Amino acid sequence: MEIVCLDLEGVLVPEIWIAFAEKTGIEVLKRTTRDEPDYHKLMNFRMDILRENNLTLADIQNVIAEIKPLEGAREFLDKVRALTQVVILSDTFSEFAQPLMRQLGWPTILCNSLETDEKNMLCGIKMRQEDGKRKAIEGFRGMGFKTFAAGDSYNDLNMIHTADFGCLFRAPENILKEEPDLKLCTDYDSFYKEIESFVMKVH
């Protein structure tokens, strides 16, 4: 038995925080896990900026409602799901993910959740578990699955290295320089072939 584990943002959908930064004109919110390895530091920074600008969860959700999957992502995901089992491992939040999952055909996603105050301002995050992507891979392996993992950011590296097979997808130059031994896919056709090869190897 095998399972494919994919990151969400940058792999199947655009980066939510970049879309929000572009909508609001707040350039510093374009900083993502492609730039910052420390997720808690990044989220605290984001929440400070939101408070400074009096922006609520609803403001973010209104932008997410306009986001579409990356071109070809739904077709790619459907094709992979017809080949084998797929789960999305993301550090995004259930409050962000639902409209995106609808557009992707409701794949399984394991992610985190948000805390808000009486004004609907973000005031904290509830991590499903720390280093949850890596631990999910370990859990699947512990259940007897051969695992394939892919993503594009610092917070994907632990799960990729822990999986039996894996690759980067459209990762930035800074990560490519730090991870020269990881295979890189830049389009969905080559990405699918990499996953197909994994499935064939483990059968």
Task: Characterise this structure.
By secondary structure, the chain is of the alpha/beta class. It has a domain at 2-13 and 71-94 and 105-111 and 131-202: Rossmann fold (3-Layer(aba) Sandwich), CATH 3.40.50.1000. It is 44% helix and 20% strand. The chain is built from 9 helices and 7 strands, in the order βααααβαββαβαβαβα. The chain has a 7-stranded mixed sheet, with helices on both faces. The longest helix is centred in the C-terminal third of the chain and has 15 residues, at 188-202.
Principal-axis shape:
globular
**Rg calculated over all Cα atoms:** 17 Å
Contiguous low-pLDDT stretches (5 residues minimum) are none
Structure class: alpha/beta
- SSE order: EHHHHEHEEHEHEHEH
Number of helices: 9
In CATH terms, what is the architecture of one domain?
A: 3-Layer(aba) Sandwich
Helix fraction by DSSP (H/I, runs of at least 4): 40-55%
